[in-house]
């Protein structure tokens, strides 16, 4: 059953990393080892969804920074922090920043298996979220600059007239760009367009009053 689940083991300790990989393989997982956070992050775009076993204390880039950079790019990789007793406070911070759990070193493999089973339960849900994000981003990437402006206005709740004033266009032109935008992203309802914009993590530069709030 576990054969389809990939576990990324990120730990600078070669001996521990090797032993953990052997145990995971015997338990039916597909372990993929990395000796450092940067090595893992450099490969991230080419990795399939999986569970991350992340050592908290590593030379160079520590586990907290690796986790933060991971979560900026992927949500389909539940993270289990591996930490020692002295690092408990930092491990709790990792949980608050989005880690699924932490396991204290040294640990029994029975406890690790329990945590992996729990993380597997989250994996499908998080993979679905990532899939929606990727799909939404792909649709938005096909928009022209003006069509993206219209999406920004839609997110801010601006009427066609208000957005037309902001962009120095006629309301008719805004209506045309909005129709083209919705056609390109494949939706018919404004609520669906808003959801795609949110899934793509689009930030509108317009405040609800029509003033520029910030730029991407």
Describe the model:
With 216 residues, the chain is of the alpha/beta class. The chain is built from nine helices and five strands. The chain has helices at residues 14-26, 37-42, 63-73, 88-96, 109-140, 145-155, 160-167, 171-185, 190-199, and strands at residues 6-10, 30-34, 51-55, 79-84, 101-105. The chain has a five-stranded parallel sheet, sandwiched between helices. α3 links the parallel β3 (51-55) and β4. The protein is elongated. It starts with 5 loop residues before the first strand and ends in a 17-residue tail after the last helix.
Write the layout of secondary structure elements.
Elements: E1 6-10, H1 14-26, E2 30-34, H2 37-42, E3 51-55, H3 63-73, E4 79-84, H4 88-96, E5 101-105, H5 109-140, H6 145-155, H7 160-167, H8 171-185, H9 190-199
Helix pairs in contact: 5-9, 6-8, 6-9, 7-8
